[in-house]
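Protein record

Derive tokens from sequence
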Amino acid sequence: MSVPVEPDPRAALRRRDRGKDEAWTHAFLERAPWGFLASVGEDGQPFLNSNLFVFDARRHCIYLHTHRTGRTRDNLASGGKVAFSAAGAGRLLPAREALEFSVEYAAVVAFGRGSLVTDEEEARAALRALLEKYAPHLRYGEDYRGTTDAELQRTAVFRIDIEAWSGKQKLADPDFPGAFELPPMPIPFPDHGRAADG
């Protein structure tokens, strides 16, 4: 069940006509493949990390995990303010003037407080939810076993308790003149589908 979020100036949209309702925002966070966590260190230095994540609708929070040491832990362990975003792009929308070029997009921005999950059962449940999101074709207890006590000590699970959020989307007419898909971003990963040389 979705938990209503009170209006909050942090989540106010400049283009209200592109704003989406809570059901859309909820569904987008459930499907988005990755997101970006923004936090601030004790010295005021902002940090941005890209993360795999899972949205827990029942608790109205976001879970992610990383190493037990590092800036993310330092910044979130004290329950500090954070922001989290997930986004996707559609077609590029050309125009006669460079300033008028645009792009189709969908995005969610969430604001809240981040914390280290210290309850072991909650941490296990979050790790399992992450695996079920990213490997839905594999079955817990059949294709892989759960996290052991020793393994749990080697990772850290973080929770973002969402206080405010906003979802927005820009879609153009399907027949928008000259609209085209952005080329795939070149990523230096091997082509595992190609036969090995030799």
